[in-house]
From TrEMBL:
The lineage of its organism: Eukaryota, Metazoa, Chordata, Cephalochordata, Leptocardii. The keyword Cytoplasm applies. Pfam families: adh_short (PF00106). Its EC number is 1.1.1.153. It comes from Branchiostoma belcheri. It is found in: Cytoplasm. Homodimer. This is Sepiapterin reductase.
Length: 270
């Protein structure tokens, strides 16, 4: 069996895999669960997490059409005090040696308040909750994942779902932009610190989801709102299924440089 160090250019899918997808109750997370379930090897386990238990169960019903074992764990990433129980639920009942590949996909994220300019952000509690949800949870879950699966004979892959907002300033989007930028850098550092771990940040593009519709109708800057409306009106929004397929293709090819930031449409690479 190939060692983690030689995993590049060798597909990590098709093996018995322990896979965690956060934010799996709808949108891209749901599409990823469905798409990946058909590519994971026999004996794989798919753990789906999100706040909405009903949404997770709907996703589970779609995935259960495959032979992959599915587990749902609901939890709120805004509450760091609940992380211990949440992580226990995610990683319980793991038998050493069963899985050849461990895959963690950080899809969960929130927009934050997209109505305010920087000068209007005065509530420290709101800011703290935002960064706890979008940055702190990501770092701590990644750390736990890597501790549960030490290198040994297990290939480890960590995927961060990102956005061009991580390197493009967007007015009234200071929370979202800074959160994505912080996450991107965390995973670039991880790639440098742990070359035996495959690390990828993937931007799925502007998608036709509930999150985009909320964003389009609530964003505070009129120029940004006009741009978002034009994307929708011109039919340029991607389907989450398309972006999910692109990510699975990238994982199957496994030729990306660890730590890279890739886009579903190939518009940029960092």
């Amino acid at each position: 069996m190939a060692s983690p160090e030689s995993a590049q250019n060798t597909s990590v899918l098709g093996k018995p895999t322990f896979c965690v997808i956060t934010g799996a109750s709808r949108g891209l997370g749901r599409s990823l669960a469905v798409e990946l379930s058909g590519s994971l090897g026999e004996g794989s386990r798919l753990v789906l997490t999100a706040r909405s238990l009903s949404g997770l169960e709907q996703t589970q019903a779609l995935v259960n059409k495959t032979s992959v074992s599915v587990k749902v764990v609901s939890g709120d990433l805004e509450d760091s005090d609940s992380y211990h129980n949440l992580f226990q639920g995610i990683f319980s009942d793991i038998t050493p040696g069963v899985f050849q590949h461990a895959l963690l996909i950080h899809n969960a994220s929130s927009l934050g308040d997209v109505t305010k300019r920087v000068v209007e952000h005065r509530d420290a509690v709101v800011l703290q909750k935002y960064y706890t949800t979008n940055v702190t949870s990501t770092i701590t879950l990644t750390a736990r994942f890597l501790q549960i699966f030490p290198s040994c004979d297990v290939t480890r892959t960590v995927v961060n779902i990102t956005s061009s907002a991580g390197f493009t300033p967007i007015k009234t989007n200071s929370l979202y932009c800074s959160g994505k930028a912080a996450r991107d850098m965390v995973f670039k550092v991880l790639a440098e610190e742990s070359p035996e771990v495959r690390v990828l940040s993937f931007s799925p593009g502007a998608m036709d989801t509930e999150m985009f519709e909320y964003y389009r109708t609530h964003v505070g800057d009129p120029e940004v709102r006009t741009l978002l409306c034009r994307l929708a009106e011109d039919g340029k929004l991607l389907k989450p299924e398309f972006s999910a397929q692109k990510l699975v293709q990238i994982l199957e090819e496994n030729s990306y440089k660890s730590g890279a930031v890739l886009d579903a449409l190939g518009r940029f690479e960092h």
